[in-house]
Structures are given as structure tokens and as C-alpha cells.
From TrEMBL:
Keyword Coiled coil: no
Molecular functions (GO terms): ATP binding; ligase activity; metal ion binding
Identification of the protein by name: Putative ATP-grasp superfamily ATP-dependent carboligase
A Pfam family recorded for this sequence: ATP-grasp_3
Organism encoding this protein: Phyllobacterium trifolii
Length: 379
């Protein structure tokens, strides 16, 4: 993406969004002054309300987006509009060839397939971290001797559901083992311009465990402050990785902060789950994402207080989801009448507070309060 699109595009231009779930990107696009054209797996009510046009992609949460039809779907969605670019969200890390296919037809505002391959290949990232002296957990592809010290992960997986304790078996297709590092998780949202990384802010995430997914993503809270020395070190590491891999736009990096110091766990090379809690009306992050992709100077938002978001899941299967009068500070609502499996997401819940601890408590409390709406027996 080399042309100065922000300077030459018309007011309120169209932008294509492709993701497993496109609602948060659509909301961010509206804040940044774009007309979102959204292709995702859900087309929930919130996404339809935000999108200028929306199209439901083929695929599933388990199998991902149907790569055979993605470019045709985006071309159909674009219609006679001339979208300034395609911004992709979750669903592309495991299949970077989809990014290549899309880039033959549209401008991509984000990382190239080559960059995604570099940072999402477990062995490749481990080698890079070793060369750049960035602490990173050991990885291996054969069964470890002491499995209790290891996790098994899916290469390119997202959302935490693919992470499980190692059980001593071989890693299997596309899976690998990563040594477990005790400590607190930390995520850094950053803007990259292929040369430098600029940290937008830090968040802490938590899990919402289920029987088969002990590390399933539960939610995240934006931190009001973080140790300045550690923050500077993280920015140096991310700048070094940016130079080596050509990272561009909004990305996030997950760390473990423990007694053994900071360890980089993984890079997510696209706008991710924490976009909602960092996006700002004063400094819309999707506009800064485009500036970073083009190599222009970026502006970092200033924040007050803290915001948290959490996913509410259903613990049991529901044959027909009830009609709910959804309160404010919720999104990604399941539609009434929908059939849900146990463990399916029901909605996203938000809370704001003066401190991160208070915001996290508030959002978890709101999830519990809301859950009474779908815990009972429904006709």
C-alpha cells in the first residue's frame, strides 16, 4: 500500500473488512470516518447496523474462513464502490495464502502474507527471538519428557481455545509444544511502520476456561500504567522485530511477566481482540493503522481511566436463544431464535472505571448479571 490513500480518497470512503468477526473493526471504521463493507462469519445485528453493506462468509469457527470464495465474496461486497483498501482481522494467520489472493485484487492495509508467515511460524519466531536476544519460551515438535512443564498450541491459532496442557503425545499436524512460563500475562498493542514500533498501550487478559479449552479467551482490561523501564525494553524488542519482518499497522504482542523476567509468547499481526478497549473517538486507531501501513507519522491516543471487555459464553446448549432487551455497553449479540452449542459466545460486555482493577471487576460482574437471561430452560 504505497499511495497516499488518506490524502486522495473522498470524504467518508468505503473500506472492506474481512474477519471471522468484523463488528469491532466495523465500529473502528465508523469512528475513523469510513463506510465499512463487512465480510465475516456471523453478520450479527451489531455488525449489520454498523456496516454500509455486509456479507456472510462461508466457513465456521472450527474450520475457519472458506478460502476458495473469499476474493469473490469481497468483490461482490465492493460492488461499484472503490474501497480504499481491505483490512483483515482474525482468521488469516493460519492461511496467509488468503492474504496473497486478496492482494491480487485489492490494496491490503496491513501485513503481507510474507510477514504473517514470518511471525506466525513457531520455529521461525523462536529463531528470530534468539538472534535478537528477546526472551522466548522453548518450543519443540516432539513429545517432551516432562509434559507437565509444556503446553501444546496450534500454529497460527487465536483466541486461546487451541492452547492446552501437553499430555505427552506427539504434537500432530500444525501443532507444537511451548514450554510453560509462570507469571502474569501482558499484551502490548502497537503501531508498526516497517521500521519502528510505537506502543499504543498495555492490557492484561484473562481466561474463561471450559472443560476442553482451559485457556479460552475471557476478556481484557486496558492498564492505566505499566513499568516505564519494561515498557521501553518491550518497545525496543518490537522495533527490532518490525525491522526484521516488515510489520505494518496495528499489531499486538503477548508476553508473560514473571519471576524469570519478560518472555515474548507470540505476535498477532493484525488488529485484535483488544481494539474495542483502545479505540478512541479523539484518535481513531483505524486511521492511525492506515497511516502506519503507509509509513506516515502516527499519533498515539491519550487515555483516562480504564476500559475492560469480556466475552459471555453459554455453558449449555440452547435450542432457541431467547429474546433479550440488550443493555448498553454490550455488543456482538446473539440473535433470538438461534441454536447455540455449549461454549458458544453470546455477547461482548464492556465496563469503564477509574482503575484497571475496578474495570475488570465491573465487567466480570456484568457478565454474571447478564447470564441469568440465558441460563434457564427456554421453550
Amino acid at each position: 500500500m504505497h499511495s497516499p490513500l488518506l490524502a486522495t480518497s473522498p470524504n467518508n470512503p468505503a473500506i472492506l473488512i474481512a474477519a471471522i468477526s468484523g463488528r469491532s473493526l466495523a465500529a473502528a471504521a465508523r469512528r475513523a470516518g469510513f463506510r465499512p463493507l463487512v465480510a465475516d462469519l456471523f453478520n450479527d445485528a451489531d455488525t449489520l447496523a454498523l456496516a454500509e453493506r455486509a456479507l456472510k462468509l462461508s466457513g465456521s469457527l472450527q474450520s475457519g474462513i472458506d478460502e476458495e470464495r473469499i476474493t469473490r465474496a469481497l468483490a461482490e461486497l465492493a460492488g461499484d464502490d472503490q474501497p480504499v483498501a481491505v483490512i483483515y482481522g482474525s482468521g488469516f494467520e493460519r492461511r496467509p495464502e488468503m492474504i496473497e489472493a486478496i492482494s491480487c485484487q485489492f490494496q491490503i492495509a496491513g501485513n503481507t502474507a510474507k510477514t504473517v508467515r514470518l511471525v506466525k511460524d513457531p520455529a521461525g519466531l523462536a529463531r528470530l527471538c534468539s538472534e535478537l536476544l528477546i526472551p522466548h519460551p522453548d518450543i519443540r515438535f516432539d513429545a517432551p519428557e516432562h509434559p507437565q512443564d509444556w503446553l501444546t498450541k496450534l500454529a497460527g491459532g487465536a483466541g486461546g481455545s487451541h492452547v492446552k496442557p501437553a499430555n505427552g503425545n506427539a504434537s500432530g499436524y500444525e501443532h507444537y509444544f511451548q514450554r510453560f512460563i509462570p507469571g502474569r500475562n501482558l499484551s502490548a498493542l502497537f503501531l508498526a511502520d516497517r521500521q519502528e514500533a510505537h506502543i499504543v498501550g498495555f492490557s492484561r487478559q484473562w481466561s474463561s476456561p471450559s472443560e476442553h479449552t482451559p485457556f479460552r479467551y475471557g476478556g481484557a482490561v486496558r492498564l492505566r500504567r505499566y513499568d516505564k523501564n519494561k515498557a521501553a525494553r518491550i518497545e525496543e524488542w518490537l522495533t527490532a522485530l518490525t525491522k526484521r519482518t516488515n510489520l505494518a499497522g496495528l499489531n499486538s504482542a503477548d508476553f508473560i511477566d514473571g519471576d524469570a523476567g519478560l518472555h515474548l509468547i507470540e505476535i498477532n499481526p493484525r488488529p485484535g481482540a483488544t481494539l474495542d478497549i483502545f479505540d478512541s473517538d479523539q484518535t481513531p486507531l483505524l486511521r492511525e493503522h492506515l497511516r502506519a501501513v503507509m509509513g506516515s507519522n502516527v499519533t498515539l491516543p491519550a487515555y483516562r481511566g480504564s476500559t475492560a471487555s469480556a466475552i459471555a459464553y453459554t455453558a449449555k446448549a440452547i435450542s432457541a436463544f431467547p429474546k433479550i432487551d440488550w443493555p448498553a455497553l454490550t455488543a456482538d449479540h446473539q440473535m433470538s431464535g438461534t441454536t447455540l452449542e455449549a461454549g458458544d459466545p453470546v455477547c461482548t460486555v464492556f465496563a469503564t472505571a477509574p482503575s484497571a482493577a475496578a474495570a475488570m471487576r465491573a465487567v466480570k460482574s456484568r457478565v454474571k448479571e447478564l447470564a441469568v437471561n440465558w441460563r434457564g430452560d427456554f421453550p
